Predict the structure.
Amino acid sequence: MGPTADVHWHARAACRGVDGRVFYPVGASGCPDRERSEAAAKRYCATCPVVEPCRRHALSLGAAEGVWGGLTGQERAGLHPSR
Ligand code: SF4
């Protein structure tokens, strides 16, 4: 993040107060339970006003797990942090 980055984005997160387990689905990749959990997490992200800074943050951390910025770890894996 640059010096003008919104460092307070998390205060406006759609997932604020939601059980964090929603965003860390368990189970093997592709299993139905995991896919349902990921879809539930992504529904929060779809309405979230800070999806872009959240996604950039996850990419800058190299977070391999969890749904951040509307993407699973697997989906983020092919993205560069500057996107
Ligand atoms: S984009 Fe998703 S994970 Fe990120 S703050 Fe918003 S709701 Fe939470």
Notes: The chain has one domain: 15-76.
